[in-house]
Amino acid sequence: MNSLSLITSCLTLGSTDPHPNVTPSVLYGLGWLYLILFAMNAVWTWKSYHRGRHFRLPEFLGGMDMPNAAVWAMYSIALLLVSVTHLTCASVPEALRWFVMPDFAKSAIDFVVADARRYFAVTTFGFIGMLLLRNWLAKPNVGWVLLNLSLLFLCVSLTDWDFRQIVGKPDNVPIVAMLFIVGFFTWLFFYRANENDRRSALGKGPIEAENNEKVLTWPDLVYTEMICMIAVTALLILWGIALQAPLEEPASAVKTPNPSKAPWYFLGLQEMLVYYDPWLAGVVFPSVILGGMMAIPYIDFNKLGNGYYTFNERKFAITTFMFGFLPLWVGMIILGTFLRGPNWNVFGIYEFWDVHKLEALNNVNLSEYFWYGIGRPLPMAPAGADFWTQAPYILLREFVGFVAIGVYLGVLPMVMAMTVFKKFFLRMGFLRFMVFSNLVLMMAALPLKMVLRWAVNLKYFIAIPEWFFNV
Amino acid sequence: MPPKPKAAPAAKPGSTGDILAAIRAQGAKGGAAGAPVESTAPKAVVASMAAPAAKSGSTSDILAAIRAGKGSAAAPTVAAEAPAAKAAVKPVAAATSGGAKLSVEEMLKAVRGETAGTAAAVPALAVPVKPALPPMPVKPPSAKEKKITVELGRRSLLVICLSPLVLAFASMAGAALLWLLNLARFMFPNVLVEPPTKFKIGPASDYPLGGVSTKWLAARGVWIVHTDQYKGQNLIYALASVCTHLGCTPNWLEGEQKYKCPCHGSGFYINGINFEGPAPRPLERVGIKLASDGQLEVDKSVKFQEEMGQWEDVNSFVDGALA
Question: Based on the structure, what is the number of domains in chain A?
């Protein structure tokens, strides 16, 4: 529906639309949000003024020197005007039609995110882009612009009913906050790491070695801790008052909420359960993740980066960890929280949660691909056969999967040791390298299976439901 | 060395700033121990310490005190030993004798012992005067070379085992074990608050061909299915409403003619065969038969799995022609 026509229908017919995109109270609330944004940028302008950086205008604009603060000041004033307009004209929505997310942008964004394949491609390429552009992204001004853009995106998107439902759910509010926190700390890491990398390129030691002034536990640390404790307690109390706990109807063994979501921090695991068997995705992989993290200090032979931020000196370790954390863990949490809807279908952030949305998910096992591929039926034991008669038939049926897994976890590490990870193998020795390569391969197994599921509808490599053994 | 500012902290007791300053000075003492002697540094320390103490303790004072302390710790201070010590003793003594109230310095002094307390009160006195360590206790000769030389023969082991102490603990452990075993009794409750596993669901004519009845879903957790979609046979059977992936309850979607699980998106055809999402095997059938009074009777105590070939069992379905 056209947003303009929706607004007019809202105005003329009152509250006939059960899912109005724009209402006076929403616009009024957005006014306050823009005001906060203005205040943030006013502070930034003030800091920029004191920093006193200049830039030269292009020739057609006069070519004179301009302080950076001037640009920030103009932007802040624009935000103030937007805020005032929202606060005063909230009851006249058509006056604010320029601050509503346009429909073509909504459909474009939904087109990308309402499909797990495209979503995963975007997060993965975004991750690679972040690593490549880290020097540019870690500049304070760039970071501030990105923060502003994401907040403006949030503001403009809140004019959509479906977006408000999913983002404003009390369950999901902390996850929105988490996204900003993860973004900030990632930025901070690159900011610090770039600084040290620049210094080491000049032959200087890390900044942490220079500013290693020691402070006392009491009062420096204890005071900081106490102030943090008070602040967090106050925040939790305010939060508890402002947002009601999202309680649902009494539990019933025969009625599962649709969609049924795990706690937010387990949504990555829940997403994994879509692709792997419960015993693997629910038991083996989480244990491997925990055990693997504990094994890192014993696997890592790189002595650099100890006690200071750096990227260049630990490229492999940081890239691997960040890939596991950002696209595979945080990315899956976002997918599970904001994009998974009824019947565990994927929905866009501006899309209505239609229980009857149809998504073709017919899946085929590897054994079926193989046996039907060579034009033969699946090997099957005669009806009523006992276990010992059945077992050879089952193993014959699934042998391709066993071979595939064997090659993946048994042969591939050797190939890696001889080719890409030759240096690693020489440094680590056989046993350590096998542990390391198997951990890396198991981590890679998740995106691999996801891609195979999406590309060729692969269900299981090994599918033996008779023995509860599926991989 | 002006004596006045030095006297200030001692004379005006009681602010948190003083306490912090005192602690700071303590810290400075350690840092300054090996530093070269300088006559100007102590002055600075004294001045900075005097400032916060003059006012009573607001938070800013405390912070100032902390900063001042940091300065003194960082600077290569100290200790023109003799004059500082001489100057310091006087005001402290005066404060102690003159004040009716106990000052913080005095309290600290009491806690730390005399030398440390004086050093705390007057930062300039940050001289490492360590109290002599008490002598290490000497091991008594009895503890030195005592070895158990008792030979434990078979007889004496028996004696030990029969000692009253061992007997008492053993019987207590035995009683605790019996009590624990007694808990197993709760595995077999007298009354089971569950609906009976066998129940009548009315005549077969209630379930027309091509329909999935959700009538018994809420109370009993089964769908009654009448379909000819499984191997072309016209059958009525009962499917347990438990997803074979992780045990959620799927929804029967009439429009799409499938069972769809809300947890991970597994989908099953009307006949219960899995076809989409992660569920590894079909839904399970439970027992069903035609009772003597012409009604259908479902028996949830038995289950039949398709992948095990159990759907061929005659107890897992009734003939659809009955409807």
Answer: 3
* Range list of β-strands (E), A146-248: none
Say if residue A347 is in the same domain as residue A409.
Answer: no
Is A46 in the same domain as A167? no
B241 touches chain A (CB under 8 A): yes
Cβ–Cβ below 8 Å for A463 and B256 = no
Digitized pLDDT (tens) for each residue of chain A, 471 residues in all: 445 554 554 454 455 678 888 888 899 999 999 999 999 999 999 999 999 888 888 888 777 888 889 999 999 999 999 999 999 988 888 878 888 888 899 999 999 998 888 999 999 999 999 999 999 999 999 999 999 999 999 999 999 999 999 998 888 888 999 999 999 999 999 999 999 999 999 988 888 888 777 888 988 899 999 999 999 999 999 988 988 887 888 887 777 888 888 888 889 889 999 898 888 888 999 999 999 999 999 999 888 888 899 999 999 999 999 999 999 999 999 999 999 999 899 999 999 998 888 877 788 899 999 999 999 888 888 877 788 888 999 999 999 999 999 999 999 999 999 999 999 999 999 999 999 999 999 999 999 999 999 888 898 999 998 888 888
* Alpha-carbon radius of gyration of chain A: 27
Q: Cβ of A361 and B267 within 8 Å?
A: yes
ipTM of the complex: 0.78
pTM over 0.90: no
By CB atoms closer than 10 A (0-12, 13-18, 19+), residue B256 is middle
CA angle A400, A402, A407 (to 5 degrees): 95
How many other CB atoms are found less than 10 A from the CB of residue A390? 18
Residue A259 and residue B262: Cβ atoms within 8 Å? yes
Instruction: Note whether residue A214 is domain-resident.
Output: yes
For chain B, the domains span 3-125, 198-322
Question: Tokens representing B276?
Answer: 């989409």
CATH architecture of residue range(s) B198-322: 3-layer Sandwich (2.102)
Contact B280 A276 (CB under 8 A): no
CA–CA dist A207, A192 (Å, integer) = 9
Q: With a CB-CB cutoff of 8 Å, which residues 100-139 of chain B face chain A?
A: none
Question: In whole angstroms, what is the distance from residue A217 CA to residue B251 CA?
Answer: 58
State the residue range of the domain holding A55. Answer: 1-100
